[in-house]
Amino acid sequence: MSAPLLEVRDLRVTFPGRRSVLDRLARRPARDVAAVRGVDLAIDRGETLALVGESGSGKTTTARAILRLVEAAAGAVTFDGIDVRTADAETMRHLRERMQIVFQDPYSSLNPRIAVGDALAEVLTVHRIGQRGRDRRERVMALLADVGLGPEIARRYPHELSGGQRQRVGIARALAVDPDLLVLDEPVSALDVSIQAQIINLLEDLQAARGLAYLFVAHDLAVVHHTADRVAVMYLGEIVEQGPIDDVFSDPRHPYTRALLAAIPGEGPQGVTEAGRARGELRQDLAEAPGCPFRTRCPLRHDRCDETPPFVGLGSGRASRCWLATRPADLS
């Protein structure tokens, strides 16, 4: 078996905390915030891994740490055999050609003062791709065609485009350097439902044509259900469940996964009902406390939840961080 294109082991990201008024009065130092806590991931060539969880779960921070847009505190990130965390500036420049990101907000990710064609040509210039002049103009037109946009778009500015068109431009910009991996950070959450479907279909077509690997960050399991090969469910900075997307969708083994599925409008997976919804809000103070961090919101809480559950392998590439993971009947 060949090595995965991307491998992440025990990734940890910590941000400096802020002192509250009570901390200042008590002269207590600020406590650091553990945004990502021991994440393990792997993505094969041409594969789509969905990283899902609600806002504040740490999924975007994980994605940015993989690309070194955020520096990790610990752990290993290996891309095609290269250690990303220790790579020097020149190595990182080449790595960034092979690992690109498509941001959530297509408008804020584009320079409003630069026409679309010039923005794409700038990427080619920075990475020294193609010859100046006509060659790069042809490459820009080819990129626009690849994402379903006409040549007239090259002369327009971001504010003259619809949300779907802007996101297509963002995808074209990421494709300009011919990457192997695209990190898709909530790429359709800011778009209308009908446009979401178009962008997802475009991404699937591009993956088939170019052999791309995707890390698809999303908060909605319904968005990635028919797109991803595997899914990793994240809660308070750690992976609580992962496995093949169809298996996790049809037979979730963590109450948090069931809560995400219960939130899908319409008819959800069999056995996942409204009663499975999570209660309350995320509590960051439980992230590093003993016990299951989901216990205060879990509808299936029991005494053993005060102990930290292990990440249990369930076979067929599945794993779950719950005391009930091996007892699916008790999750119903």
Keywords:
11 helices, 4-stranded antiparallel beta sheet, 8-stranded mixed beta sheet, about 325 residues, alpha/beta
How would you characterize the overall build of this protein?
The chain has 332 residues and is α/β, with parallel strands linked by helices. Helices cover 30% and strands 21% of the residues. It has an eight-stranded mixed β-sheet, sandwiched between helices. Strands 2-1-4-5 form a four-stranded antiparallel β-sheet, covered by helices on one side. Helix 7 (193-210) links the parallel strand 7 and strand 8. Helix 4 crosses helix 5 (134-146). The two termini are 36 Å apart. 39% of the residues are buried.
Task: Please outline the helices and strands.
Elements: E1 6-15, H1 21-25, E2 33-43, E3 48-52, H2 59-66, E4 74-79, E5 82-83, H3 89-98, E6 99-102, H4 116-126, H5 134-146, H6 163-175, E7 181-185, H7 193-210, E8 213-218, H8 221-224, E9 230-235, E10 238-244, H9 245-250, H10 255-262, E11 312-315, E12 318-320, H11 328-331
Parallel strand pairs: 3-8, 3-9, 6-7, 7-8
Antiparallel strand pairs: 1-2, 1-4, 4-5, 9-10, 10-12, 11-12
Helix pairs in contact: 4-5
Oligomer: single chain
Structural class: alpha/beta
Number of helices: 11
Tell me the strand percentage band: 15-25%
> Major sheet: size, sense and barrel closure?
8 strands, mixed
Low-confidence stretches: none
Mean residue pLDDT: 89
Number of strands: 12
Gyration radius, in Å: 21 Å
What is the CA–CA distance across the termini? Answer: 36 Å
Principal-axis shape equals globular
The sequence of SSEs as H and E is EHEEHEEHEHHHEHEHEEHHEEH
Strand order of the largest sheet: 6-7-8-3-9-10-12-11
Share of residues in helices: 25-40%
